[in-house]
Amino acid sequence: MSHPAPTTPPAAAADHPVTDRVLEAMAVSRRHCDELLPEADWLKKLARSEATGQPLRIKLGLDPTAPDLHLGHTVVLNKMRQLQDLGHQVIFLVGDFTSMIGDPSGRNTTRPPLTREQIEANAKTYYAQASLVLDPAKTEIRYNSEWSDPLGARGMIQLASRYTVARMMERNDFHARFQAGTPISVHEFLYPLMQGYDSVALKSDLELGGTDQKFNLLVGRQLQQEYGQEPQCILTMPLLEGLDGIEKMSKSKGNYIGITEDANSMFAKTLSISDVLMWRWFDLLSFRPAAEVAALKAEVAGGRNPKDAKVQLAREIVTRFHSAAAADAAEADFNNRARGGIPDDIPDVALAGAPLAIGALLKQAGLVPSTSEALRLVEQGGVRIDGAVVSDKGLKLPAGTVVVQVGKRKFARVTLAA
To answer: How many domains are contained in the chain?
Structure first.
């Protein structure tokens, strides 16, 4: 087994001047972040980079636990892109090894590890989607199995010897579970160790993550010191609340906007968030200058319709992941639906079995998950046929073609045959 060769940290005396460009980079680093630790060390690294022309190595690791990225992931990706645009080397790390352990951060139960097949399938899409935010030509992509697999049992034991159980139990979620008598599996202790070892392997200068990753990021800093490296700084970004404005954005909670969703859905979902949450999203997702957002907020406070601001946010998000033309079309589609109109681009569905009960039709057309849900929506007045509200749960539709609408956003052109 081999570890990365120890390096000698630069002498403290080798400090470099703090220029205006360094201060600008510091301001970019700090904007909307939750914590930047230690700030003094990061300022020194930025000054050294400016003086020597040597880019800093900035790392973000994501475990491919689901096949798609959502807007919540882009909060840290956006910060990576800002630092990338300053000329630093960003490293997008796919945690194909750590995914097999399962990150226990913020959990009160053991997370079930994924299979190698699930991880490989998810990892294929991660970098392609991250490239919608990062500049792929200037991004180093790595997989932590590169150095974690070769460690083997002997290497894992040696790595584990460099961190104490007492330090591990300082972690809030571990401490709370221990106090509550909730099981903690030994393999869960390996997760922060392996994430920290990633920083050693990559000789990271800065690691980014959500606020729930702070402990793991600090482990990386400690392990780098153990291996004789200059310790990385850490930058945590706030967790983005999802569409409900309460829970953090998560695919499992259904309160997310995927960055590969179609433009119309992306626009409409953004318009659905609360006026209060909108400003939080502006802070964490918008690339507009802070002064511009502040001016817009003042206009709304002075009486301007908050929907105008929300439309600007929705257009910016759709333009980023699709195009300006797609944002125009999505806004037009949204306004058409708001007026009760039928979108131009709706799926065509062919069904048989006329006359077919309304509940069965909605389920077979893929507009509802179950017949019982279909009948509940009919009761609530949430189903329309050719623009007319359906109130009869016993309705049977004859052969022919109709436009079916469920709620505000689900449409299908159904051709029903006998």
So the answer is: 3
